[in-house]
Amino acid sequence: MxxxxxxxxxxxxxxxIWHPYSRAGLLTDHSTAIFPVVGAQGVYLHLxxxxxxxxxxxxxxxMVHGYNHPQMNAAxxxxxxxxxxxxxxGLTHKPAIELARKLLAMAxxxxxxxxxxxxxSVAVEVAIKMAMQFWIARDRxxxxxxLTVKGGYYGDTTGxxxxxxxxxxxxxxxxxxxxxxxxxxxxDCRFHEDVTEQHTSQLHQMFEQHGQRLAGVxxxxxxxxxxxxxxYSPQFxxxxxxxxxxxxxxxxxxxxATGFGRTGKLFACEHADVVPDIMCVGKALTGGYLTLxxxxxxxxxxxxxxxxxxxxxxxxxxxxPLACAAGNxxxxxxxxxxxxxxxxxxxxxxREGLAPCTRLDTxxxxxxxxxxxxxxxxxxxxxxxxxxxxxxxxxxVRPFGKLVYVMPPYIISREELVTLxxxxxxxxxxxxxx
Length: 434
What we know:
- This protein is an alpha/beta fold.
- It is 37% helix and 17% strand.
Protein backbone atom coordinates (compact mmCIF):
# COMPACT_ATOMS: atom_id res chain seq x y z
CA MET A 1 0.00 0.00 0.00
CA UNK A 2 1.04 3.57 -0.61
CA UNK A 3 1.44 5.96 2.34
CA UNK A 4 -1.86 7.31 3.62
CA UNK A 5 -3.05 10.57 2.11
CA UNK A 6 -3.32 13.29 4.73
CA UNK A 7 -5.88 16.04 5.11
CA UNK A 8 -3.17 18.48 4.02
CA UNK A 9 -2.55 16.38 0.90
CA UNK A 10 -6.22 16.51 -0.02
CA UNK A 11 -6.37 20.25 0.60
CA UNK A 12 -3.38 20.78 -1.70
CA UNK A 13 -4.95 18.55 -4.36
CA UNK A 14 -8.24 20.43 -4.18
CA UNK A 15 -6.56 23.81 -4.47
CA UNK A 16 -3.86 23.13 -7.05
CA ILE A 17 -4.49 19.97 -9.11
CA TRP A 18 -6.86 20.04 -12.06
CA HIS A 19 -8.70 16.72 -12.49
CA PRO A 20 -10.30 15.59 -15.79
CA TYR A 21 -13.38 17.51 -16.89
CA SER A 22 -13.54 19.46 -13.65
CA ARG A 23 -13.30 22.98 -12.37
CA ALA A 24 -10.04 24.12 -10.82
CA GLY A 25 -9.98 24.72 -7.08
CA LEU A 26 -12.24 21.94 -5.80
CA LEU A 27 -12.17 23.41 -2.31
CA THR A 28 -14.89 25.74 -3.57
CA ASP A 29 -16.51 23.23 -5.91
CA HIS A 30 -18.63 20.97 -3.73
CA SER A 31 -20.26 19.26 -6.74
CA THR A 32 -17.32 16.90 -7.16
CA ALA A 33 -16.03 14.48 -4.53
CA ILE A 34 -12.50 13.08 -4.76
CA PHE A 35 -11.79 9.63 -3.31
CA PRO A 36 -8.12 8.98 -2.43
CA VAL A 37 -6.65 5.63 -3.51
CA VAL A 38 -3.71 4.04 -1.70
CA GLY A 39 -3.60 0.65 -3.39
CA ALA A 40 -5.19 -1.64 -5.96
CA GLN A 41 -5.27 -5.40 -6.42
CA GLY A 42 -7.18 -7.50 -8.93
CA VAL A 43 -10.50 -5.74 -9.50
CA TYR A 44 -10.37 -3.78 -6.24
CA LEU A 45 -9.39 -0.21 -5.43
CA HIS A 46 -8.24 0.39 -1.84
CA LEU A 47 -9.26 3.75 -0.43
CA UNK A 48 -7.48 5.87 2.12
CA UNK A 49 -10.13 5.09 4.76
CA UNK A 50 -9.75 1.30 4.39
CA UNK A 51 -12.71 0.62 2.11
CA UNK A 52 -12.42 -1.66 -0.93
CA UNK A 53 -14.29 -0.85 -4.12
CA UNK A 54 -14.95 -3.15 -7.06
CA UNK A 55 -13.70 -1.17 -10.05
CA UNK A 56 -16.42 -1.31 -12.68
CA UNK A 57 -14.59 1.13 -14.94
CA UNK A 58 -11.22 -0.60 -15.49
CA UNK A 59 -9.82 2.89 -14.83
CA UNK A 60 -11.46 4.33 -17.93
CA UNK A 61 -11.51 0.99 -19.73
CA UNK A 62 -7.79 0.19 -19.82
CA MET A 63 -7.03 -2.09 -16.82
CA VAL A 64 -8.42 -5.17 -18.56
CA HIS A 65 -6.14 -7.58 -16.67
CA GLY A 66 -6.80 -5.96 -13.31
CA TYR A 67 -4.40 -4.27 -10.93
CA ASN A 68 -1.01 -5.49 -9.76
CA HIS A 69 -0.92 -8.32 -12.29
CA PRO A 70 2.22 -10.44 -11.69
CA GLN A 71 3.04 -10.91 -15.39
CA MET A 72 2.66 -7.21 -16.08
CA ASN A 73 4.71 -6.27 -13.02
CA ALA A 74 7.52 -8.64 -13.97
CA ALA A 75 7.73 -7.26 -17.52
CA UNK A 76 8.15 -3.72 -16.27
CA UNK A 77 10.65 -4.67 -13.58
CA UNK A 78 12.76 -6.51 -16.14
CA UNK A 79 12.71 -3.62 -18.59
CA UNK A 80 13.47 -0.89 -16.06
CA UNK A 81 16.64 -2.76 -15.09
CA UNK A 82 17.80 -2.62 -18.73
CA UNK A 83 16.82 0.92 -19.74
CA UNK A 84 13.70 3.00 -19.22
CA UNK A 85 13.81 5.27 -22.26
CA UNK A 86 15.68 6.14 -25.41
CA UNK A 87 14.58 8.46 -28.18
CA UNK A 88 13.02 6.67 -31.15
CA UNK A 89 14.52 9.05 -33.71
CA GLY A 90 17.47 7.20 -35.26
CA LEU A 91 17.32 4.43 -32.63
CA THR A 92 15.20 1.34 -32.08
CA HIS A 93 14.87 -1.35 -29.43
CA LYS A 94 13.54 -4.86 -28.90
CA PRO A 95 10.38 -3.98 -26.94
CA ALA A 96 9.12 -1.79 -29.80
CA ILE A 97 9.98 -4.35 -32.46
CA GLU A 98 8.27 -7.16 -30.54
CA LEU A 99 5.21 -5.06 -29.84
CA ALA A 100 4.84 -4.11 -33.50
CA ARG A 101 5.15 -7.82 -34.42
CA LYS A 102 2.42 -8.77 -31.95
CA LEU A 103 0.12 -5.95 -33.05
CA LEU A 104 0.37 -6.81 -36.74
CA ALA A 105 -0.15 -10.50 -36.00
CA MET A 106 -3.36 -9.67 -34.12
CA ALA A 107 -4.67 -6.91 -36.36
CA UNK A 108 -6.77 -7.69 -39.43
CA UNK A 109 -5.08 -7.66 -42.80
CA UNK A 110 -3.98 -5.53 -44.57
CA UNK A 111 -2.56 -3.66 -41.55
CA UNK A 112 1.15 -3.37 -42.34
CA UNK A 113 2.77 -0.39 -40.60
CA UNK A 114 2.74 0.76 -36.98
CA UNK A 115 3.19 4.29 -35.64
CA UNK A 116 3.54 4.40 -31.84
CA UNK A 117 1.81 7.31 -30.15
CA UNK A 118 1.69 8.70 -26.63
CA UNK A 119 -2.06 8.36 -26.07
CA UNK A 120 -5.34 7.62 -27.79
CA SER A 121 -5.86 11.26 -28.67
CA VAL A 122 -2.43 11.41 -30.31
CA ALA A 123 -3.15 8.19 -32.20
CA VAL A 124 -6.25 9.82 -33.69
CA GLU A 125 -4.30 12.98 -34.51
CA VAL A 126 -1.77 10.76 -36.31
CA ALA A 127 -4.53 8.95 -38.20
CA ILE A 128 -6.05 12.21 -39.42
CA LYS A 129 -2.63 13.49 -40.47
CA MET A 130 -1.95 10.21 -42.27
CA ALA A 131 -5.16 10.61 -44.26
CA MET A 132 -4.33 14.21 -45.16
CA GLN A 133 -0.71 13.48 -46.07
CA PHE A 134 -1.77 10.45 -48.15
CA TRP A 135 -3.76 12.67 -50.50
CA ILE A 136 -1.05 15.32 -50.60
CA ALA A 137 1.31 12.56 -51.74
CA ARG A 138 -1.26 11.57 -54.38
CA ASP A 139 -1.34 15.18 -55.62
CA ARG A 140 -4.94 15.56 -54.41
CA UNK A 141 -4.61 18.35 -51.80
CA UNK A 142 -8.29 19.25 -52.23
CA UNK A 143 -9.14 16.03 -50.35
CA UNK A 144 -8.60 17.58 -46.94
CA UNK A 145 -11.88 17.05 -45.08
CA UNK A 146 -13.02 14.32 -42.74
CA LEU A 147 -16.46 12.77 -42.50
CA THR A 148 -17.87 11.21 -39.36
CA VAL A 149 -21.14 10.55 -37.57
CA LYS A 150 -22.57 12.74 -34.85
CA GLY A 151 -22.36 11.53 -31.28
CA GLY A 152 -18.73 10.42 -31.51
CA TYR A 153 -15.76 11.06 -29.25
CA TYR A 154 -12.16 10.76 -30.46
CA GLY A 155 -10.07 12.61 -27.88
CA ASP A 156 -9.38 16.04 -26.46
CA THR A 157 -6.66 17.48 -28.70
CA THR A 158 -7.46 19.96 -31.46
CA GLY A 159 -7.64 17.58 -34.39
CA UNK A 160 -9.64 15.10 -32.34
CA UNK A 161 -12.07 17.75 -31.16
CA UNK A 162 -12.83 18.64 -34.77
CA UNK A 163 -14.41 15.22 -35.38
CA UNK A 164 -16.12 14.85 -31.99
CA UNK A 165 -19.83 15.55 -31.75
CA UNK A 166 -20.23 19.19 -32.85
CA UNK A 167 -23.44 19.91 -30.93
CA UNK A 168 -23.94 17.94 -27.72
CA UNK A 169 -20.35 16.77 -27.21
CA UNK A 170 -17.84 17.88 -24.61
CA UNK A 171 -16.07 20.20 -27.05
CA UNK A 172 -18.93 22.25 -28.49
CA UNK A 173 -17.40 25.39 -26.95
CA UNK A 174 -14.64 25.18 -29.55
CA UNK A 175 -16.91 25.36 -32.60
CA UNK A 176 -15.40 27.83 -35.04
CA UNK A 177 -11.93 27.38 -33.55
CA UNK A 178 -11.17 23.81 -34.55
CA UNK A 179 -11.12 22.70 -38.23
CA UNK A 180 -14.57 22.18 -39.72
CA UNK A 181 -15.46 18.79 -41.17
CA UNK A 182 -18.58 16.98 -42.36
CA UNK A 183 -21.06 15.11 -40.16
CA UNK A 184 -24.05 12.85 -40.72
CA UNK A 185 -26.54 11.63 -38.14
CA UNK A 186 -25.26 8.77 -36.07
CA UNK A 187 -26.59 5.32 -37.02
CA ASP A 188 -30.05 4.76 -35.51
CA CYS A 189 -29.98 1.03 -36.29
CA ARG A 190 -29.47 -0.96 -33.09
CA PHE A 191 -26.84 -3.66 -32.88
CA HIS A 192 -29.01 -6.59 -33.99
CA GLU A 193 -31.09 -4.66 -36.55
CA ASP A 194 -30.76 -4.90 -40.30
CA VAL A 195 -29.57 -1.75 -42.04
CA THR A 196 -31.90 -0.31 -44.65
CA GLU A 197 -31.53 2.45 -47.22
CA GLN A 198 -33.23 4.76 -44.76
CA HIS A 199 -30.35 4.27 -42.33
CA THR A 200 -27.70 5.14 -44.93
CA SER A 201 -29.41 7.68 -47.22
CA GLN A 202 -27.78 10.67 -45.51
CA LEU A 203 -24.41 8.96 -45.76
CA HIS A 204 -24.88 8.29 -49.49
CA GLN A 205 -25.87 11.89 -50.07
CA MET A 206 -22.80 13.19 -48.26
CA PHE A 207 -20.48 11.02 -50.35
CA GLU A 208 -22.18 12.11 -53.56
CA GLN A 209 -21.90 15.79 -52.67
CA HIS A 210 -18.49 15.91 -51.00
CA GLY A 211 -16.65 12.68 -51.82
CA GLN A 212 -14.13 14.52 -53.96
CA ARG A 213 -13.16 16.60 -50.88
CA LEU A 214 -12.99 13.77 -48.36
CA ALA A 215 -9.59 12.53 -47.20
CA GLY A 216 -11.14 9.99 -44.86
CA VAL A 217 -14.03 8.82 -42.75
CA UNK A 218 -13.37 8.21 -39.06
CA UNK A 219 -15.70 6.16 -36.91
CA UNK A 220 -15.82 4.17 -33.69
CA UNK A 221 -16.81 0.71 -34.91
CA UNK A 222 -20.04 -0.70 -33.45
CA UNK A 223 -19.82 1.28 -30.18
CA UNK A 224 -19.72 5.04 -29.73
CA UNK A 225 -17.90 5.21 -26.41
CA UNK A 226 -17.73 8.47 -24.47
CA UNK A 227 -20.16 9.96 -26.99
CA UNK A 228 -23.02 8.05 -25.41
CA UNK A 229 -22.29 4.30 -25.25
CA UNK A 230 -24.44 3.90 -28.35
CA UNK A 231 -24.38 0.45 -29.97
CA TYR A 232 -25.22 0.27 -33.67
CA SER A 233 -25.52 -2.41 -36.35
CA PRO A 234 -22.28 -3.82 -37.78
CA GLN A 235 -23.99 -3.74 -41.17
CA PHE A 236 -23.57 0.04 -41.11
CA UNK A 237 -19.80 -0.46 -41.08
CA UNK A 238 -20.05 -2.67 -44.16
CA UNK A 239 -22.08 -0.04 -46.00
CA UNK A 240 -19.58 2.61 -44.98
CA UNK A 241 -16.64 0.53 -46.25
CA UNK A 242 -18.44 0.14 -49.57
CA UNK A 243 -19.01 3.86 -49.90
CA UNK A 244 -15.38 4.66 -49.08
CA UNK A 245 -14.21 2.25 -51.78
CA UNK A 246 -16.60 3.65 -54.37
CA UNK A 247 -15.58 7.26 -53.72
CA UNK A 248 -11.85 6.75 -53.13
CA UNK A 249 -11.89 7.74 -49.46
CA UNK A 250 -9.77 6.27 -46.64
CA UNK A 251 -11.59 4.56 -43.76
CA UNK A 252 -10.28 5.07 -40.21
CA UNK A 253 -11.47 2.96 -37.29
CA UNK A 254 -10.97 4.24 -33.75
CA UNK A 255 -10.61 0.96 -31.81
CA UNK A 256 -9.09 2.64 -28.76
CA ALA A 257 -12.04 1.77 -26.52
CA THR A 258 -13.37 -1.24 -28.45
CA GLY A 259 -10.13 -3.03 -29.29
CA PHE A 260 -8.63 -6.05 -27.53
CA GLY A 261 -11.83 -7.87 -26.69
CA ARG A 262 -14.10 -5.29 -25.11
CA THR A 263 -17.09 -5.93 -27.45
CA GLY A 264 -16.66 -9.72 -27.46
CA LYS A 265 -14.44 -9.72 -30.56
CA LEU A 266 -10.72 -8.98 -30.53
CA PHE A 267 -11.49 -5.88 -32.60
CA ALA A 268 -14.98 -4.46 -33.04
CA CYS A 269 -14.62 -4.32 -36.84
CA GLU A 270 -14.73 -8.15 -36.80
CA HIS A 271 -18.46 -7.95 -36.04
CA ALA A 272 -18.89 -6.64 -39.59
CA ASP A 273 -16.01 -8.51 -41.24
CA VAL A 274 -14.72 -5.11 -42.34
CA VAL A 275 -11.14 -3.85 -42.38
CA PRO A 276 -10.19 -0.15 -42.30
CA ASP A 277 -7.26 1.53 -44.05
CA ILE A 278 -6.09 3.06 -40.77
CA MET A 279 -6.80 1.80 -37.24
CA CYS A 280 -6.13 3.40 -33.85
CA VAL A 281 -5.60 1.29 -30.72
CA GLY A 282 -4.78 2.21 -27.13
CA LYS A 283 -6.16 1.86 -23.58
CA ALA A 284 -5.97 -1.94 -23.11
CA LEU A 285 -2.81 -2.03 -25.25
CA THR A 286 -0.64 -1.79 -22.13
CA GLY A 287 -3.18 -3.28 -19.73
CA GLY A 288 -3.50 0.22 -18.31
CA TYR A 289 0.02 0.24 -16.86
CA LEU A 290 1.47 3.07 -18.95
CA THR A 291 0.19 5.46 -21.55
CA LEU A 292 0.74 4.14 -25.08
CA UNK A 293 -1.28 3.93 -28.26
CA UNK A 294 -0.63 3.03 -31.87
CA UNK A 295 -1.90 3.95 -35.30
CA UNK A 296 -1.79 1.06 -37.76
CA UNK A 297 -2.25 1.42 -41.49
CA UNK A 298 -2.15 -0.54 -44.72
CA UNK A 299 0.98 -0.72 -46.83
CA UNK A 300 -0.75 1.39 -49.46
CA UNK A 301 -1.10 4.23 -46.96
CA UNK A 302 2.41 4.03 -45.50
CA UNK A 303 4.10 3.46 -48.86
CA UNK A 304 2.24 6.30 -50.59
CA UNK A 305 3.18 8.77 -47.87
CA UNK A 306 6.76 7.56 -47.56
CA UNK A 307 7.44 7.61 -51.30
CA UNK A 308 6.53 11.30 -51.26
CA UNK A 309 8.01 12.61 -47.98
CA UNK A 310 8.62 11.71 -44.34
CA UNK A 311 5.52 11.40 -42.19
CA UNK A 312 5.47 14.58 -40.14
CA UNK A 313 4.99 13.43 -36.58
CA UNK A 314 7.43 12.35 -33.86
CA UNK A 315 6.66 12.48 -30.12
CA UNK A 316 9.51 12.68 -27.61
CA UNK A 317 8.36 9.56 -25.79
CA UNK A 318 7.39 7.64 -28.92
CA UNK A 319 7.73 3.87 -28.36
CA UNK A 320 8.93 4.32 -24.78
CA PRO A 321 10.58 0.98 -23.86
CA LEU A 322 8.74 0.65 -20.54
CA ALA A 323 5.39 1.24 -22.22
CA CYS A 324 6.28 -1.19 -25.02
CA ALA A 325 7.29 -3.81 -22.44
CA ALA A 326 3.90 -3.37 -20.77
CA GLY A 327 2.26 -3.67 -24.20
CA ASN A 328 4.08 -6.89 -24.95
CA UNK A 329 3.00 -8.41 -21.63
CA UNK A 330 -0.60 -7.27 -22.12
CA UNK A 331 -0.83 -8.74 -25.62
CA UNK A 332 0.74 -11.98 -24.41
CA UNK A 333 -1.98 -12.28 -21.78
CA UNK A 334 -4.63 -11.60 -24.40
CA UNK A 335 -3.04 -14.10 -26.78
CA UNK A 336 -3.45 -16.73 -24.05
CA UNK A 337 -7.15 -16.60 -24.82
CA UNK A 338 -8.53 -16.32 -21.29
CA UNK A 339 -10.61 -13.32 -22.26
CA UNK A 340 -12.47 -15.41 -24.83
CA UNK A 341 -13.81 -17.65 -22.07
CA UNK A 342 -14.39 -14.76 -19.69
CA UNK A 343 -16.28 -12.37 -21.98
CA UNK A 344 -19.42 -14.51 -22.49
CA UNK A 345 -19.72 -14.89 -18.72
CA UNK A 346 -19.31 -11.14 -18.21
CA UNK A 347 -21.88 -10.36 -20.88
CA UNK A 348 -24.49 -12.76 -19.48
CA UNK A 349 -23.89 -11.58 -15.90
CA UNK A 350 -24.27 -7.93 -16.93
CA ARG A 351 -27.49 -8.70 -18.82
CA GLU A 352 -28.94 -10.54 -15.85
CA GLY A 353 -27.61 -8.17 -13.21
CA LEU A 354 -28.69 -4.91 -14.85
CA ALA A 355 -32.10 -6.20 -16.02
CA PRO A 356 -33.92 -5.01 -12.85
CA CYS A 357 -33.10 -1.44 -13.86
CA THR A 358 -35.55 -1.75 -16.77
CA ARG A 359 -38.38 -1.63 -14.26
CA LEU A 360 -37.42 1.85 -13.04
CA ASP A 361 -39.38 4.79 -14.43
CA THR A 362 -36.24 6.92 -14.47
CA UNK A 363 -34.44 4.48 -16.80
CA UNK A 364 -34.78 4.90 -20.56
CA UNK A 365 -32.76 1.87 -21.72
CA UNK A 366 -30.50 -0.94 -20.56
CA UNK A 367 -28.06 -2.43 -23.07
CA UNK A 368 -25.13 -4.82 -22.93
CA UNK A 369 -22.49 -5.82 -25.46
CA UNK A 370 -19.47 -7.92 -24.52
CA UNK A 371 -17.95 -6.41 -21.38
CA UNK A 372 -19.94 -3.18 -21.66
CA UNK A 373 -23.07 -2.62 -19.59
CA UNK A 374 -25.10 0.57 -19.90
CA UNK A 375 -28.04 1.97 -17.97
CA UNK A 376 -29.30 5.06 -19.77
CA UNK A 377 -31.35 7.40 -17.61
CA UNK A 378 -34.10 9.72 -18.84
CA UNK A 379 -32.33 12.71 -17.33
CA UNK A 380 -28.68 13.52 -16.57
CA UNK A 381 -27.45 12.08 -13.29
CA UNK A 382 -26.53 14.29 -10.36
CA UNK A 383 -22.87 13.39 -9.85
CA UNK A 384 -22.66 15.03 -6.43
CA UNK A 385 -25.47 12.76 -5.31
CA UNK A 386 -24.86 9.46 -7.11
CA UNK A 387 -21.08 9.10 -6.86
CA UNK A 388 -20.86 8.90 -3.04
CA UNK A 389 -23.82 6.48 -3.00
CA UNK A 390 -22.06 4.12 -5.40
CA UNK A 391 -18.89 4.29 -3.30
CA UNK A 392 -20.91 3.62 -0.16
CA UNK A 393 -22.31 0.55 -1.96
CA UNK A 394 -18.74 -0.71 -2.49
CA UNK A 395 -18.26 -0.07 -6.20
CA UNK A 396 -16.40 2.40 -8.37
CA VAL A 397 -18.64 3.49 -11.22
CA ARG A 398 -18.19 6.88 -12.87
CA PRO A 399 -21.43 7.98 -14.57
CA PHE A 400 -21.58 10.81 -17.08
CA GLY A 401 -24.49 12.64 -18.64
CA LYS A 402 -27.46 10.27 -18.66
CA LEU A 403 -25.32 7.15 -18.49
CA VAL A 404 -24.51 4.85 -15.61
CA TYR A 405 -22.25 2.30 -17.27
CA VAL A 406 -19.59 -0.30 -16.53
CA MET A 407 -16.63 -1.72 -18.45
CA PRO A 408 -15.06 -4.03 -15.85
CA PRO A 409 -11.68 -5.80 -15.98
CA TYR A 410 -11.79 -9.14 -17.80
CA ILE A 411 -10.63 -10.97 -14.65
CA ILE A 412 -13.76 -10.06 -12.69
CA SER A 413 -15.67 -13.01 -11.24
CA ARG A 414 -19.40 -13.68 -11.57
CA GLU A 415 -19.81 -13.03 -7.84
CA GLU A 416 -18.10 -9.65 -8.17
CA LEU A 417 -20.30 -8.84 -11.17
CA VAL A 418 -23.39 -9.70 -9.13
CA THR A 419 -22.21 -7.30 -6.43
CA LEU A 420 -21.41 -4.59 -9.00
CA UNK A 421 -24.77 -4.81 -10.76
CA UNK A 422 -26.74 -5.09 -7.50
CA UNK A 423 -25.06 -1.91 -6.24
CA UNK A 424 -26.03 0.00 -9.39
CA UNK A 425 -29.62 -1.22 -9.33
CA UNK A 426 -29.98 -0.52 -5.61
CA UNK A 427 -28.57 3.00 -5.87
CA UNK A 428 -30.78 3.88 -8.84
CA UNK A 429 -33.84 2.39 -7.11
CA UNK A 430 -33.09 4.38 -4.00
CA UNK A 431 -32.72 7.61 -5.97
CA UNK A 432 -36.02 6.99 -7.73
CA UNK A 433 -37.74 6.45 -4.40
CA UNK A 434 -36.49 9.74 -2.98
